[in-house]
């Protein structure tokens, strides 16, 4: 079954939902959060006898930890709680949770104890959640480093402490969880930049709240269910004309590999025909590995096709700029990648032509290209990837994909998504060209623009995950291996969808 997508809220949205739900919530939300954490912890401690350690912080995240500790104490499990703050300064709900823990007979240590000889059954991080305001220093930083050094499973409550829940940045130092239980809904920072490295396995506990009923979700996690409408089985009486023509433009001298990779990906995504227009006058007339690709001069190829992707290996000279101008003037859906993005970043006239286009435009930058387009540094883009992709989409009135782990997609209508497929095997040359080709291939088959973008981004990562599962990578995974995996997945998903 194709799992449905989950909503994503920045911290401000989670706060709005909490504030609306809190007055009537029975049992209170913190009780639900502590209980949900305890249930998840039980699963992680199967076959792990002995004590668990819960490190509690000075806010409500710590409160969740005290509730969780009380559940284990009452169930007769040995649990050790460390809290270095002043209980008198705990916020209301957390103070009640500490009192209930104390009244149940729980003891609170003011420093981390030494681990028992057999190790902890589980280490729980209830130090900071969505209220983290600044980099962690001093005693809390020491605690996090010490906890990270412990063997065995490590669970974070709501957010790994030290991770910014909105951006995925590490503020000072962050707890490295093997499991994270997050409440109400996903948050962007858990899914992009350094978030996935710190969350481990991520589980959402909704606390019996329907978040969308309180506040419509601004963002969504990418899942195949979002583009499954396009999974049409092919009629027996099909012919290539039904599946459209994709056009890839690029390949200046010494850079022909990039558009050829994109072309192969477009074929594997199912395009009826793929034209590759190369700028290099001495380019080979045929791709001997993929002779189905129809290699043309760039000018010639531009007159073909239903969907155009321009940029892989394009170069930035006047010939390239002129081709980009022609592509922008066409009526077709247009994917801009690599040097096409760099040209637009450097030339206001080209940027204006991209922004004013009637047919859809998709920008697919990596962080450095995004920085050039936004006239800032790659670091600034990475500091807040979500804001960056939304700003790109707004500024160019275009669809934007910001690549990198936890790729982000923003549409001109304001909707955004985060993709979770993919792995470090994709940190290799040519992977971006494959994404560009997939997009062109799906657009050529007349997938609606949003479905094509979401589908291409997800397939791209899922194909790499399939290779990884077969032992092909992450080390040494290469871009030319991806298109075959894309084909397998796409056919599987279409068949699966029609069996349901
Ligand atoms: N609200 C609800 O309904 C529910 C909330 N729930 C739970 O509450 C969590 C949010 O709780 P929260 O708002 O109290 O924030 P939290 O993450 O505990 O941290 C705030 C404390 O940390 C401090 N502090 C911050 N940064 C610091 C730093 N770098 N270094 C040192 N101190 C720092 C900050 O101090 P201050 O900035 O005021 O000096 C304040 O004392 C949420 O993630 C979920 O787990 C669930 O129970 C469900 C219901
Ligand atoms: K935490």
TrEMBL record:
Instruction: Return one GO MF term.
Output: metal ion binding
Q: Which reaction does it catalyse?
A: (6R)-NADHX = (6S)-NADHX; (6S)-NADPHX + ADP = AMP + phosphate + NADPH + H(+); (6R)-NADPHX = (6S)-NADPHX; (6S)-NADHX + ADP = AMP + phosphate + NADH + H(+)
Keyword annotations from UniProtKB, A to Z: ATP-binding, Isomerase, Lyase, Metal-binding, Multifunctional enzyme, NAD, NADP, Nucleotide-binding, Potassium
Q: Which Pfam families match?
A: Carb_kinase, YjeF_N
Q: What's any GO biological process attached to this entry?
A: metabolite repair
Quote the record's binding site residues for K(+): 61, 125, 161
As to how many cofactors bind and how, the note says: Binds 1 potassium ion per subunit.
Residue ranges annotated for the YjeF N-terminal domain, each copy included:
14-215
EC number, UniProt record: 4.2.1.136, 5.1.99.6
For this protein, the record's CDD domains field holds: YXKO-related
Give the residues the record marks as binding AMP: 403-407, 432
Which prosthetic group or cofactor does it need? Mg(2+); K(+)
Q: Which residues bind (6S)-NADPHX?
A: 60-64, 129-135, 140, 158, 258, 313, 366, 433
Q: Keyword Signal on this protein?
A: no
Tell me which residues make up the YjeF C-terminal domain.
223-493
The UniProt entry's sequence similarity note says: Belongs to the NnrE/AIBP family. Belongs to the NnrD/CARKD family.
How does this chain assemble? Homotetramer.
Write out the function statement from the record. Answer: Bifunctional enzyme that catalyzes the epimerization of the S- and R-forms of NAD(P)HX and the dehydration of the S-form of NAD(P)HX at the expense of ADP, which is converted to AMP. This allows the repair of both epimers of NAD(P)HX, a damaged form of NAD(P)H that is a result of enzymatic or heat-dependent hydration.
Protein name per its UniProtKB record: Bifunctional NAD(P)H-hydrate repair enzyme
């Amino acid at each position: 079954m194709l799992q449905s997508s989950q909503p994503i809220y920045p911290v401000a949205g989670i706060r709005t939902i909490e504030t609306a739900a809190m007055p009537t919530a029975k049992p209170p939300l913190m009780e639900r959060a502590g209980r949900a954490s305890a249930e998840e912890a039980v699963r992680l401690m199967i076959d792990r006898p002995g004590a668990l350690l819960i490190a509690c912080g000075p806010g409500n995240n710590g409160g969740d930890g005290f509730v969780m500790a009380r559940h284990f104490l009452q169930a007769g499990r040995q649990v050790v709680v460390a809290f270095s703050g002043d209980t008198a300064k705990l916020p209301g709900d957390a103070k009640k949770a500490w009192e209930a823990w104390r009244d149940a007979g729980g003891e609170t240590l003011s420093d981390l104890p030494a681990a028992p000889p057999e190790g902890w059954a589980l280490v729980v991080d209830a130090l900071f959640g969505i209220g983290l305001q600044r980099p962690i220093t001093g005693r809390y930083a020491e605690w996090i480093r010490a906890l990270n050094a412990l063997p065995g499973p490590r669970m974070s409550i709501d957010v790994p402490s030290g991770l910014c829940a909105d951006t995925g940045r590490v503020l000072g130092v962050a707890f490295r969880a093997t499991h994270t239980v997050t409440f109400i809904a996903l948050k962007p920072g858990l899914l992009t930049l350094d978030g996935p490295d710190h969350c481990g396995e991520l589980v959402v506990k909704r606390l019996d709240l329907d978040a969308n009923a309180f506040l419509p979700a601004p963002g969504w996690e990418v899942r195949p269910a979002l583009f499954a409408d396009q999974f049409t089985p092919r009629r027996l009486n099909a012919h290539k004309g039904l599946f459209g023509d994709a056009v890839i433009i690029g390949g200046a001298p010494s850079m022909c590999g990039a558009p050829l990779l994109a072309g192969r990906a477009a074929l594997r995504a199912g395009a009826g025909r793929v034209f590759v227009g190369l700028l290099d006058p001495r380019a080979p007339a045929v791709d001997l590995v993929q002779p189905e690709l129809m290699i043309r001069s760039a000018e010639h190829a531009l007159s073909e096709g239903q969907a155009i992707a321009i940029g892989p290996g394009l170069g930035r000279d006047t010939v390239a700029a002129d081709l980009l101008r022609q592509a922008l003037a066409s009526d077709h859906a247009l994917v801009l990648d690599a040097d096409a993005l760099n040209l637009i970043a450097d030339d206001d006239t080209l940027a204006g032509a991209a922004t004013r286009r009637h047919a859809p435009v998709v920008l697919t930058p990596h962080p450095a290209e995004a920085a050039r387009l936004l006239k800032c540094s790659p670091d600034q883009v990475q500091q807040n990837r979500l804001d960056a992709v939304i700003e790109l989409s707004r500024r160019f009135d275009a669809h934007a994909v910001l690549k990198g782990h936890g790729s982000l997609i923003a549409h001109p209508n304001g909707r955004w998504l985060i993709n979770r497929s993919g792995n470090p095997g994709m940190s290799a040359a040519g992977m971006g060209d494959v994404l560009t080709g997939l997009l062109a291939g799906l657009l050529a088959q007349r997938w609606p623009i949003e479905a094509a973008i979401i589908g291409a981004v997800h397939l791209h990562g899922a194909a790499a995950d399939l290779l990884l599962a077969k032992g092909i990578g992450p080390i040494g995974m290469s871009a030319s291996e991806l298109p075959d995996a894309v084909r397998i997945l796409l056919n599987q998903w279409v068949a699966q969808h029609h069996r349901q």
